[in-house]
Amino acid sequence: MRNHISRWVNSLGIVVILSLALSGTGLTLLFADISPVVVSWETASEVGTAGFNVYRAPLSESAVVRVNPELIPSEGDEMVGAAYRYADDDASLRPWRRYRYQIEEVEWDGSATLYPEAVVVRAGLPRVWTRVEGGLLIALALVLLWGRLRRSSQGAAG
């Protein structure tokens, strides 16, 4: 029995490893929360800060558009800032197109400061495409493994 299992594992070899790698990557893409663009920033302190807005513009255009539907609330305090992350998965983002992002700080009194520093990023694939890609990788892994198992069982029978 032990020799039979050992021969079976050796005959499958690289196909099993490849199938496991493909299915692991596929599961990650299928279930991970991967946005086309993620903008992150940190503050040192937040005196009077109510929250933040994130603005975006295609690199070739100058007019920026607010992308967050609601104010991103301040999480820091007057002495210690905080780290922030905004996932932009707007359907209007074009894969591989370059966009410029800017952060606006909004104070409790209603005043706002749009910081001149901008981050330029290249948009990735929309979430639906990463999920499709994940499903295709899992299907490929199963096809490879099934084909190898069929050949192994035919070789053992013959």
The CATH topology annotation of the largest domain reads as: Immunoglobulin-like
Following the backbone from N to C, one meets helices and strands in this order, namely: HEEEEEEEEH
Q: Strand-residue fraction?
A: 25-35%
**Overall morphology:** elongated
Strand segment count: 8
**Main β sheet profile:** 6 strands, antiparallel
CATH-wise, what's the superfamily of the largest domain?
A: Immunoglobulins
Please give the alpha-carbon distance between the first and last residues: 18 Å
CATH class of the largest domain, anyone?
Mainly Beta
- The stretches of 5 or more residues where confidence is low (pLDDT under 50) are none
Q: Roughly what is the average pLDDT, rounded to an integer?
A: 82
Instruction: State the assembly state of the protein chains.
Output: single chain
The appropriate CATH architecture of the largest domain is: Sandwich
Q: Compute the number of helices.
A: 2
The Rg value, from CA coordinates, equals 25 Å
